[in-house]
Amino acid sequence: xxxxxxxxxxxxxxxxxxxxxxxxxxxxxxxxxxxxxxxxxxxxxxxxxxxxxxxxxxxxxxxxxxxxxxxxxxxxxxxxxxxxxxxxxxxxxxxxxxxxxxxxxxxxxxxxxxxxxxxxxxxxxxxxxxxxxxxxxxxxxxxxxxxxxxxxxxxxxxxxxxxxxxxxxxxxxxxxxxxxxxxxxxxxxxxxxxxxxxxxxxxxxxxxxxxxxxxxxxxxxxxxxxxxxxxxxxxxxxxxxxxxxxxxxxxxxxxxxxxxxxxxxxxxxxxxxxxxxxxxxxxxxxxxxxxxxxxxxxxxxxxxxxxxxxxxxxxxxxxxxxxxxxxxxxxxxxxxxxxxxxxxxxxxxxxxxxxxxxxxxxxxxxxxxxxxxxxxxxxxxxxxxxxxxxxxxxxxxxxxxxxxxxxxxxxxxxxxxxxxxxxxxxxxxxxxxxxxxxxxxxxxxxxxxxxxxxxxxxxxxxxxxxxxxxxxxxxxxxxxxxxxxxxxxxxxxxxxxxxxxxxxxxxx
Length: 508
Prior knowledge:
The chain is an alpha+beta fold. Helices cover 27% and strands 29% of the residues. The chain has 13 helices and 24 strands. The radius of gyration is 27 Å and the shape is elongated.
């Protein structure tokens, strides 16, 4: 087997230029592809592994499977093959470097940068999981951060495919020679360290460890079992918000069932904590190339924020006017087009137009496990939908399609009215409309109950961006369930968000 050296050509096409990285399974080279006049990365399996047909075949087979995936956060595969006993893969070249190098050079990043990096990592994992693939070996060495801050995940399923192919043929010690000692890898989930096959939950665990290391450094990524539990990031790096501790704790829970239900669920949790691309857009020199690091918000970002103030004022004014019209406090007329409503006669007070606000005493999420849900749809955020602040919101998980990735029929937000009331309308404010909702009366909430109707008999309503008021036939109830049946596009995925919701009718 001829030794690999610079200027060597593979497949009569790829000219190796320089070694740019090395992992447990392979060495990575920067190479030129003169056919397409571009730089590529060539991953060459280590000689000792390439001599084993089980390892070599699993390496190439899994590379082919991963090559079918297409996602902006997954490293693109261009070619694969063997030459002179060497097994190799050709992938896109990322002008930047591994995340591990970023951590070595800059140390922990800001919480906003950590959230943004992990949101992109989790988006890549979600794509793989939906295709039936598990990464099984996520670590800072196979997460690449480009010069403009874009994150790419590589090696999807490679190590796990080799473990699976050799599991019945080798002892644990021999497996350790090929893939590294399992007990020494903090990113492997407890079930993997017990010798079990990796699952999507194992990837969520690895993502939790990686998030902890981004926030607080390697001291926060020791595997469970060395001590009772790893320290939370804030215990190592004071000032980190406790919400990040909670995400880390849930992701790296000992039992798979106690972790986030999916990579998408973890991603949604981080999105709400401030994942923001400008936070990783600044670059620093690293080995002649560039790699992004945490940055403070720019003056341009601050200016854009201030420019939003007039728009917010106008928006809130419009909400107030609409609310006044709905609740009968304002009416059309007068020199300005809107005036205070005239006092109502007793007869008018009994009509639907005399509906008054009904206090919502509490809100909670509804995600029935009997219908395919995991029983949790961001319960920590439900209060944001009734706090009177349209700048905050309760948001569903993000899903692969508008129909919840065919996982379940819907999710909901239940509004507790604190006692019997007659509901005549529900007003919803959302920053991103286009999603569909049913309004269901009852206590406790029952998504399978008959939804309320408007005057025309309609039961499903599309919520527009801004404020939407849904007038329904009077219904006596202790609560209203906003049962979301179809999601709207949101950042390449699908979700629904409720910034504010209010109920009007007759209290008591």
